[in-house]
Design brief:
It contains seven helices and nine strands, in the order H-E-E-H-E-H-E-H-E-H-E-H-E-E-H-E. It has helices spanning 4-28, 56-63, 82-88, 101-112, 137-145, 168-171, 195-212; strands spanning 30-34, 45-49, 68-73, 92-94, 116-119, 149-155, 176-181, 185-186, 231-232. Strands 1-7-6-2-5-3-4 form a seven-stranded mixed sheet, sandwiched between helices. Helix 5 (137-145) packs across helix 7. The protein is globular and about 55 Å long. The two termini are 33 Å apart.
């Protein structure tokens, strides 16, 4: 029996993807993409990206050949009308800075369905080059589920502001954006997840993202490098 709720989410996702999001990315931005071949075409996946601008999610949705279930701050769901759109989009609300067990269960449910779980480990936009210190949620989910992590790096999106950026094509001043998909990897698994494993997993994820970024975008992770402990996914 079909999951009509999921079919509705997929239809709403596709409608947004092929209208305003495609318009923003297609004619208003100059986009350089690397590493599309690194994206697994099926199976559960955690996509972890740095977060500079409000334009980051639509760019990733348009250019990633998978449907993404985003984790988003709960405050967005409380906004009239806008909150409904986030729910119809299949986003998972999360309370930042708190142990949100409901968000954890919903994210794991999305992964059990074989979806891509989109996460910004920093928890908020930096609004300028330079990554902030990450929250532990991404690593915790990766350790609990054993699902591969796909590191993603965006640079140049600080020049994109909505809704003004829908009119860059008129002025012929489209921002130049670089989008890089790294190779997926798994965090080392252990029988019991301790705080130390989560902290190390967080550093590992951010180091993989930082490795894909220009140096001035690495911020708090400018001097980190991926360890040999992470298991590459073939």
């Amino acid at each position: 029996m079909p999951d009509f709720a999921d079919l509705g989410v997929a239809a709403w996702y596709g409608a947004n993807l092929h209208t305003w999001a495609a318009l923003l990315v297609g004619i208003n931005l100059k986009l350089q993409i690397e590493g599309l071949e690194n994206i697994p075409r099926k199976g559960p996946l955690i996509m972890a990206s740095n977060h500079v601008s409000v334009a980051d999610p639509p760019i990733l949705c348009v250019k990633t050949p998978r449907r993404i279930a985003w984790m988003a701050k709960k405050e967005l769901f409380d906004i009239p009308v806008v909150g409904l759109c986030y729910r119809f989009y299949g986003c998972v609300p999360v309370r930042r800075g708190a142990a949100d067990l409901t968000a954890l269960r919903q994210s794991e449910q999305a992964l059990r369905k074989g979806l891509v779980l989109g996460m910004f480990p920093e928890g908020t936009r930096s609004r300028q080059p330079g990554m902030k210190t990450a929250e532990p949620g991404t690593a915790l989910i990766a350790l609990r589920t054993g699902v591969p992590v796909l590191p993603v790096a965006l640079s140049g999106t600080e020049a994109v502001t909505l809704p003004h950026s829908f009119f860059h094509w008129l002025r012929r001043d489209q921002p130049s954006i670089r989008l890089v998909y790294g190779r997926p990897f798994r965090l080392p698994q252990s029988e019991r997840i301790r705080r130390e494993e989560v902290e190390q997993g967080t550093r590992e994820i951010m180091a993989h993202i930082a490795e894909l970024l220009p140096r001035d975008y690495r911020g708090a992770y400018a001097d980190t490098v991926p360890s040999a402990a992470a298991e590459p996914v073939q």
